[in-house]
Amino acid sequence: MTAQRQALNSCIFLAFANLSAITAVIALNPINRLAIRVKPRDSPLMDASEIPQTRAMTAEILPPGAGATAPAVTPNAAGQAALAAAEVLARQASAPATLRAYKADWAHFAAWCADKGFVPVPAAPAVVGAYLGSLADSHAPTTIRRRLAALGKMHRFNDLPWNPGHRDIQGPLQGALRTRGRPVQKAAALSLAMLRQLVATCDQSARGRRDRALLLFGFAGAMRRSELVSLRVEDVAVVPGGLRVRIRRAKTDQTGQGAEIGLPRGRHAETCPVRAFEAWQAVAKRQAGPLFRKISTGGGIGDTKLHPDAVRRILAHRVAMAGLSIEGFDRLSAHALRVGFITAAYDTGIRDEDIMRHTRHRDLRTMRGYVQRAGLVTESPAGGIDL
Fold this sequence. Notes:
50% helix; two-stranded antiparallel ribbon; hpI Integrase, Chain A; DNA polymerase, domain 1; 3-stranded antiparallel sheet
């Protein structure tokens, strides 16, 4: 049974790299045919004595209404090319980071099923509910919901039965969230005073200039870490009064329509994004390619862009150098730059619509969530009752 489980896990993990092909891969051998079998509702366990007779899968397309004995119609070269092109586009429908997360989630679920003796594909609602319940003590609510989304994605991509609203799924899920849920730890807001302390740790070395520019772009542009590391030199134009920055793709812009924001010259040299950009470009000496690049331990500037997680590591390094600490319940993350800008802009009296236009927020409630946290104490009605 151990060899069968390993074969099942291996085939499922590899197939998730091409989501549209997972059904064909699963049907390759008897153990995989066993995995694809739809079990009765009251019996989600695997039974080696019940291997179904799976119909062979082909690349042929049957005309509508044709029976099993109808002659198959094979697409010509142009038709096959159209199908291949559609498959390529389908694989690009989700962001690479999302697919990586889904692949890891699916591998975890498949391993859990193999350990418990459950059928992973198609997943019976009771099995999914048991899996989600097993995560309650060790995983955050957002992770549990993402695991559920990953299972649904795999099933829908392969035209397999899937009903996330089934009582056997929602019952354990809601029960786990109600009894074992814990508050979501929010990203801390980096204040302007803290930002000044961070950029003060950046010297005139290549690393110091890059980090200063990255911190100031992230704060002044209210940028997500993915947006920061995706910036290219040709996306930044020096114009009278500041910089015009093109953001090619964002979290809420999956179709790649892009956006442009302006970064005015700062009133103080140490926090001016324009001067920081010019200082970094003076040593980077690049006219195209990634704006924020990796730097070797010897100080050599490479051609590869930073990994998104590098933004968090750079921020944490500068926070440690400045001797700062994050107070309260918040956590330090790369999002602190974006949240810090929203908080500072609100405190300055900038209108909601102007903040949202700059931050590219589409939902006022999301942006207001950051604002409400910033004013929890200063704007609390408890302060006006003469305690």
